Amino acid sequence: RSKLSGAELLCQIKEMVQIATLTPDMEPFSGLPWASQLPPRQITADIGPFKTCAVVSSAGSLKNAGLGKEIDAHDAVIRFNAAPTTGFEKDVGSKTTVRLINSQVMASEDHHFLSSSLYSAGILVSWDPGPYSSDLREWFNKTDYPIFKQYQRYRRLHPQQPFYILHPRMEWQLWQRIQDNMVETIQKNPPSSGLLGTVLMMSLCEVVHVYEFLPSRRKTELCHYYQRFSDAACTLGAYHPLLYEKNLVKRMNKGSDRDIYTHGRVTLPGFMTFNC
Ligand code: NCC
């Protein structure tokens, strides 16, 4: 097969990856007493469209990046998992419009998901790496972590905060785009939160700037800008097909290589701005 151009890749993702969140009418949730805790509408119907959006990866190379002002100047900002802003404003900014969290964060004791103020800003969106299937019932019976139990608890404690759950179909449709555009066989694990969040923002925004997903000249083995732990696998991937995700994003980038080198910045067009 021939290698797709950036424009063709963008079209594939726009046309073949459906951005969807769970709603109370979907089976098997519709039959459960807590279904009414789910937002009645799709996230894409509730928020946006935004003009400019920033995706802030949690990479160690954001440390000393001084990108805070630039990031906060966007209309919407997405952050991931336990990535803090307090104490790191100069480098990563302080605005949080959306926080995308994996189910491990929701379930593991050390993240204090139910009580930590880290999660109280902005709109929460969660996801769980279930089986390779788009079937909600199959996933419901076999989630990686107890996402639904934690969701119900959180909603009871913080009923006013908007909180969505991604439809698992999105993970696998996006995974398929990665696999179909690579020569090698990649591991059957879902894309990282970073790529899921990037595609989510492409459906909500006219222009998306992704920071330090493709590492800048500050590239480091430091895993996160907010922790002292080092492991190159954080940037290159182990469980997630991160290296392949990055290759795809590089091909879709509309910005310059210089922007990547100096700012770790990639520019992607929102889906609403192009026709296929
Ligand atoms: O590390 P994590 O991701 O929370 O990072 C968020 C996203 O930023 C991008 N990233 C991060 C570090 C780095 N050096 N380079 C990067 O490009 C990635 O796109 C990443 O998705 C996840 O994807 O959900 C992940 O979550 C962690 C962990 O569960 C949470 O941080 C909570 O502690 C996973 N780590 C482990 O399971 C040990 C990580 O594999 C993926």
How many structural domains are formed by the residues? 1
The CATH superfamily is identified as: Glycosyl transferase family 29
- The whole-number mean of residue pLDDT values reads 96
Count of helix runs: 12
Descriptive report:
The chain is of the alpha/beta class. The protein has a single domain, classed as Alpha-Beta Complex (sialyltransferase cstii, chain A), CATH 3.90.1480. It is built from twelve helices and seven strands. Strands 5-4-3-2-1-6-7 form a seven-stranded mixed β-sheet, with helices on both faces. Strand 2, helix 4 and strand 3 form a beta-alpha-beta unit. It is globular, with a radius of gyration of 18 Å. Bound molecules: cytidine-5'-monophosphate-5-N-acetylneuraminic acid. The site of cytidine-5'-monophosphate-5-N-acetylneuraminic acid has 20 residues, from helix 5, helix 9 and helix 10.
Task: Write a concise synopsis of the structure shown.
With 276 residues, this protein is α/β, with parallel strands linked by helices. Helix content is 33%, strand content 13%.
